[in-house]
Write the structure tokens for this entry.
Amino acid sequence: MRGALLAAVVSALLPAGAPAQVIAIEGGTVHTMVGAPMPNATVLIRDGMIAAVGTDVAVPAGAVRIDARNRVVTPGFFDSGTNPGLVEIEAVDPSSDLRAPTQEDLVAAGFRVADGLNPNSMVIPVTRVAGITTAMSRPQGGLFAGQGAIIDLFGETREAMIVRDPAAMFASLGEAARGAVQGARGGTTMLFREVLEDARAYGRNRQSFERGEIRELSVDRVDLEALQPVLAGEIPLVVEAHRASDIRTLLTLAREYGFRPIVFGGTEAWMVAEELARERVPVIVKVLQNLPESFEKLGATYENAGRLSRAGVPVAITTGDTFRSFTLRQEAGNAVAHGMDHAEALRAVTLYPAQIWGVADRYGSLEAGKVANVVVWEGDPLELLTGVANVIIRGQEVPLVSRETLLRDRYLRLGPERAY
Amino acid sequence: MRSVLLSILLLAVTGCAARGGGRSTASEPSAAPDSAAPFPSTYEPFPSTPTVIRGGTVMTAAGEVIPGGEVLLRDGRIAAVGASVDAPAGATVIDATGRFVTPGVIDTHSHLGAYPSPAVTAHSDGNEITDPNTAEVWVEHSVWPQDPGFIRALEGGITTLQILPGSANLFGGRTVTLRNVPARTVQGMKFPGAPYGLKMACGENPKRVYGERGRAPSTRMGNVAGYRAAWIRAEEYQRRWDAWNEGSRTPASMPTRDLELETLAGVLRGEILVHNHCYRADEMAQMVDIAKEFGYEIRSFHHGVEAYKVRDLLAREGISGSLWADWWGFKMEAMDFTKANVALVHDAGARAIVHSDDPIGIQRLNQEAAKALRAGRDAGLEISENDALRWITANAAWALGIDEEVGTLEPGKRADVVVWSHNPFSVYARADQVFIDGALILDRSDPARRPRTDFEVGLETGGIR
């Protein structure tokens, strides 16, 4: 019974028929994210990639045509901090793969979210039908939470969905770290340094380590190994930090150990905007956060994203939410309502995340040669009354169906026929 | 007129002095003087001058949308609404050209003050998690008026809100309805004449909290047994008092007061409104049956993620649905959501309400209503902006029993008015001006009219430098 229901749901979510080889989105106002919006332009998609964008694009015979007149065309939105495919129901613990095995595992650098990714998660369709096509799926908890992956929200297998893995290492400072470590900031920072120093020692003395000829290191081998790309600058170290002084601690640590820092959350980042801009340190901002929820967030303001953006800090906007990643446009819209430039807010959910996460060669803008993640909107993408007309991921149009719409349709009538 | 003693028993019941009652509950309780009820409201409207708001699109939430309309506020009340109104000489004129004018926004579900910011244990006073039945507690005794969340909510156009105890218990305690004004005490915020509510909770929370402690309830059937056992005691308590009132009335024979049963008896008499946290459709139907068994009414199901499945029942029983636009997934009973929930409940003829249960969400109920409106249109339902506006104004006022006082822009009602920078269903809309009882409480363009709480003093930008 349950299996049959699931099967029905899944089959309804699969695209009908064979994927089109060539799609032409015609007549819309195209926001490429790299130049001024182009009215009445065509986006041509071939074999999963963007083949051409412009006002004089020839549409080959046999192309599937999408009429985008009076509509707006953008790259698929990119949420930099959500977890589709990693959790089904938050309070149902066995369905959640966000955290390393134990709360005591303070340093879980070796933990990779990609290993737990479920391509058949019900959360994926409900997210992508809202125009979110790509996400940074991040681990949570502990001092070092593990490695996040960039995924497209479409694909039958994990491998098919992954854009980049590992894409970043996640950690925390301030109260999030305190909660894990049960100690003062000086203590968490000390542990942070100890882990990085041990990882450095391990990297320089791997053979001695294997022979047992090295002093005892504070964390497990898998964690030490996972931190090598961080120390080598190959992947960034994303640190949740909110208080201005904690963000400065992060900048200090980054200089000491030579890693590439990214601030996650950054409630008081606007107070450190000049330093962040000078050192080109990106901030992943949840816009809808303006309460002094704790003593490290006294400077919370809806103007955070706008102020950072104007100061020249690279900003990506996130929901920070697993189940309501589909509200990403509301986050961006509210950033605009509180002073952020509209075009910059759009880039903060498309181009800038692609740049920050190191995938801008393939993602983030509508340019020939990039992966064809494209959304057609009935109007301003950030307005809540605007409908989503078409979602295309890797060149395939995705049906605008999720478990949420299926339940809606099942209950449009309340009679007995509903049960089938 | 019943006795003063009985009036004390009734506690919450106060006549709505000026206008013959803000309630529209089924039974009409006897009036009792404010002095007979403990913790009486000391709310006084802020000073106001006659004010006319001109040139904006007036959305009354009573069916009319008037482009370039006018609203006259006088003596704390809406004096006139129309294409043009007769403004007295010297009235303050607000130019709302290009802007939008609506009633003040009302949230039926908030924990501001009881779970304030900062969220520290020392201030975490929303759930009395010591017994599954704490009908004896009143959430107003937990409300910290200096919660900065009140001001943030005001900046989102919230003029009235109900604070509820949490959902750990079957009976969480009394709710309180507040005017969203800066005040030193919670009494200074209490909505004069508003009936009390009783918070009840279904489902996962009570059975989890007490089941983990090895005591009842640990199951949904345990939940139901708990409700029924309590109502049986409440009936008996009510009978005891009725007998005494109708009999000897000697001090020696007076029954002992019981705070828990006073509240439950208040529900049985129709004087206290039931606000029932309940997610699942089947549980809502069972709660309706329990209400019938004991002869009380449920005023609003809160959260109701599955309300759409029993929207016919809600419509038939006259129960409102205080719902989210799109929350889901955080627990099992929140799995079967649809974004069309609010719209489907509305379409069935029940009173749909968009509520927050969240100190961030309360700041943009207009946006939450916009999402619910969009989802309704996606479902093929015909829903007007007036309908959607009622989800956060008039229908919410009804659920709180204050719909004769607030919730629409109609002459005679309290002058709770928001002037928005854009159409309120736009993500870019900000509340430029907020009036409560005709007084300009917030003006975004005037730093002198931007209230702040004690907590924020000296902390606004992260410290004094």
